[in-house]
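All the exercises in this workshop are built on plain-text protein records. A learned vocabulary of local backbone shapes supplies the integers on the structure line. Once this layout is familiar, the rest of the handout is easier to follow. An example says more than a description, so a record of this kind follows:
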Amino acid sequence: MSEICPICGLPKELCVCTKIQREQQVITVSLKKAKWGKYVTVLRGFEGVDIKKIARELKTRLACGGSAKGDMIILQGNHLDRVKKELIRLGIPPENIHMEEY
């Protein structure tokens, strides 16, 4: 017998809980100036998902370093132009991604 999702009660193969959680999140992307004039891209608003897994995927796809702390992901460098495409690829709708200009 297959495993049952504790949230929706459906079998794991049919479970859509993680997809729904990703679609309901509002992610804010901003650029901050760090030490020595370097920039970091900050993503906030992740709730109910594995933030370390998302951070690892973004760091791999954007070829940069970074970390996941609390509900935010910090990526080293200015990635404002590419991070939106990657978030859409990960299943977050474009209307839920807010880009803050610096």
Observations:
- The domain at 26-99 is CATH 3.30.780.10 (Translation Initiation Factor Eif1).
- The chain has one domain: 26-99.
- The chain has a mean pLDDT of 86.
